[in-house]
Design a protein that fits this description.
By secondary structure, this protein is mainly alpha-helical. Helices cover 58% and strands 6% of the residues. InterPro entries: AAA_22, DCAF12, P-loop_NTPase, TPR-like_helical_dom_sf.
Amino acid sequence: MGASDSLYLFPLQPYLCYFPGDLQEELSYLKAKVFPHLDALCQKRGTCFRPVDLQRSNYECDIDGHQINKPDLFDQQLKISLDLIDRSSFFICLLGHSYGQCLPGENGSQSDIGPCSLSEVARNLHVAAKAGYPWIMEDEYRTCSLTELEITKAAFIDNHRSCFFYFKDYTPQDMEDDSSDEMHIFLNMLSNQSQSERQRMRDLKRRIINHCLPVRFFRNLHELEEMIRVDWEGVICKFHEDPKHPISGWQDSFDRRYHESHARRLCDWFVPSVPTTEILNALNKFLRSITHNAKSETHSRNSGAHFKCDLDQKDSEKSILLVCGERGCGKSTLAAWWLRAFCRQNPDFLVIPHFCGTSTSSTDVRSMLRQCTAQLQRAHYGDFPDWEDAIEFKYLHRAVQAFTAAANLGPCILLVDGIDLLTETLGLSKQEVKELRWLPDALPPYCKMIITTTFTDLTYKSLTSRTDVQILSCPHISDPSVQHSILLRHLALPYKELPISVLQRIMHKKQCHLPAFLAIIGTELRTCAVLREKEEEMELLQEYVEADSVPELWVKVIHRWVKDFSRTAPTEVTETHTNTTSLREDLSGWVWDTLCLIHVSRAGLTEAQVLALLEDLGYFGKLRVEVLEWVRLRSAFWPWVQEEANGLLTIMHQSLSQAMNLLFHDMGYHNSYHQILAKFFQKSSLELCSWARKMEEIPWHLKQTGSLKELHDFLSDPATMEFLSSSLKQYPQMTIDVVHYWTLLRERGFDPVTLFQILMAQSWECLNDAHPPDHSSVWRLSLFCSKVLLCLGEMQKAEELLLKADQIFQKGMERDSDSMRLLIKVQHMLAELYVQMHLPKDTEMYCHKGLETARSLDSAEVKLIVGQLLCRLCLALLADGRLYAVSGIFKEISSSRYISVHPCAEGTAMLLKAIHKLSLCETKTAERCFQAALASRRRWYGHDHPLVAEVEEQLADLWASAQTNTEWTQRRIVELYRHAVSTRETETRTLQLPSTQHNLAVVLMKLGKVLLCSCSRVERREGQDLLQRAADIRIHLLGPEHLMTRDLEQQ
């Protein structure tokens, strides 16, 4: 885990401050031209740029005398703005000539300020002072405008915020020309200001400059644009680096940083105590065997690092430490705090954090294994290009093997927080995932895992049944001083004090041993008093502390939010979504709908999407949710509903999600919101919702509602297919999802094979009619459909589509670089497909075609493909006995140009060298090369991969053919053949292809022959049984009269 701040992703949400009604042209220009540019720059780095503008509809609200809340919504504006500034790390302020409303000096006594004051400014001061900002009532600040109070809070009282000021320079460029337009504007501006207002603005600007804060002066829109671009592009580059080396897919590189950002955010809430210190010490003690004994000859993150680990047997008995407890006991916060402390003390030690729930892919086991494997491999080998294998992707057991092999490369720690949140994945049901069928039976000795889960989840039962798991229970918090600290940490208002009697009442309650319980009460105390007198606040607090569980407390809090912030939905809204919302009066209105929409969404919703959804539900016109209403709710939600780095609002704590599920279960309308969201994302514009977000949400909601026909239609829509075919590599999780959906659809009677054939036929027809024809689009579609068909086990159908795509190239089309890159991928996939189908002639042909295509291309990706094609070609030639054609190809493969591209290349190159040397009767050299190839492939793939079995079989063949076999060699031959048989049997059951059965029969025959020569009667009998099995397989494949079958029967 890196310690760099650039790995910490967070949404850039600077508070946008200006005087109401001033600089409107500049603000409109920034929102239309500059801010979208900065947001696009952030999106490429996995985050977003969303300035918070509380003034934008301050005086546009027309409620026709309808009183929204008491006190009036606009009386809370100052309090809300100070809350937002308090939580923002950045502040943008544009100052022109206006100063804004303020209390006159002679009317600024505290007796004139209260809820019944005639002045809106006075009422704002009263509400903000009561809600935790009493400093605004001091003589120095009481007569300031609300905007100056915002500046005071952001720049003068707090000193941790990055502030940027932009002052409008109204001075005309030609002061001598009295008739110029600039001069008229300048004089008119001065005439409209009072002396007091001009003096206050001068004093404010002088104060800002005297504090040495960054100030820019601009004359026009162009200058303002350049200044803000330079300033904020610098901020973006400083805090969010451009991911130049993605782990395995563009999205995976962001996911890794989301995990580290989530951990950092959790650390902000940690409160140390004696029990937590004991847990932290226990975690470090558990890891002592690898942290104290693991030594590296070079830096553990450098390429080619070699690890040595002297493990004490007693210390290494347990590989997994399970930290368990009830939900809300602080497991995640504790894990995050340990992670930060450990990484600071051991900066060179490899720690991979995975916090389930931080993104869509974080709860998918396949994605978790893939991401962890990629990080482990890159920590050992350094950076290398992605190795894309559509056939490899399908099988989960191979991903588990690769993960185990990567974990064996060197000392490492894997932290998996919230394993109970893992859900179903391609090939495993939710129950199978929770039964940990994906977790290796034994972890490598260098690898330790720390896992957190809840007592009540099936993962707890599955883990405690393993012998390599050490269990650690998360303790209850019983110290009143620690409980008090947790409460105040979440209250986070230094000027708001709680009476001792109130604190004692809270601490005496049973549920206060849970940090989550205290945290919820603390955050509620920030906002619940705004609409209540002191007695009412204490009554509400008493109701909260009487809750018997955290979910029950959440239900009470949700009811409070709905009651305080949501207007009762009038008849027209109720009729709009009668079938989608509860008929209960205590849970209705826009606040409840907002919570439901965010909760039911798969990955969260942006603010713009939530507001658009609310309009779809009927909240428009007079019922439209105003900016201040929305921001006030966001302030109450915080920190339980927050924006992730990518701008998506999500529920941050599982206890709130659990409470929402309980309410949904009681009301029975969960599917209704799935339908609303599916329909919304389908009709939304790409400005509101990108294609990646559509693919993340729409199929998932259709699947949740059982709308399989609609799911089929959406996935087969040409626009969907076009996006998937052009963008799938950037989103590895999307690949898993798409194959999962098509697997489900095929099980329910839909036919993806016929559909893809029809779609491709239509594309080929359109290609003939288009001028100019878009060959690239057809090739992308062919590759995508073929990849899905391969994952579905339809090799022959995939071959047909690829062959058709290759044939199109022969019709004299123009050869641009993009088309050539797609063509070589088509030819490469065909060559790999023919290897799987054991068709050496076809393999050789498409290797030659691909190499010919590659002549005009040069990139890291093409080099990787060329290296693979050369290896496949060399193997095909050697198998055919054409040694004369191999030497030139072998020299090209052996050059560092291809071997250095990817770690896998080393093992294949050594295998080819071994076969070549063996053909030249250089058996000793061949043996060393076979052993090197075997070690290399085991390091990459694990021990049970078919490519490992391939080398084992050939090494055993070499030893078996030798005339002088020692007893040790004989045992090794049998071991290698037995393991090859086991691997081939697994592949035969998985692939169910004639070629795999043929391979199995060959290895059975070889092992049988070796055992027949054994001195043991048992082994000789076993050898006869193995030969009979091999004969049965060949009879099944070739028939009893085939020459190969007869030869085997004679043996």
